[in-house]
Amino acid sequence: MYKKEVINSQSELNIISENHKEITTKAKYGPSKITRIPLYIDEELVFFVGCIIGDGHLKKSKLQTTIELTNKELITYISKICNNLFNRKFNITAVKLREGKKQSYHICIDSKSIYNLLNKVFEIPIGKKSHIVNVPKYITKGKKRIKIAFLQGIMATEGGKRQRGFGLSTASEKMWKGLSLIFKDVGIPISIDKWVHKKYKKEYYGITFKEKYLSLLYAGVPEWSNGLRLGRSSLVLA
Question: Residue 103: which of 68, 65, 55, 54 has the closest Cα?
Answer without folding.
Answer: 68
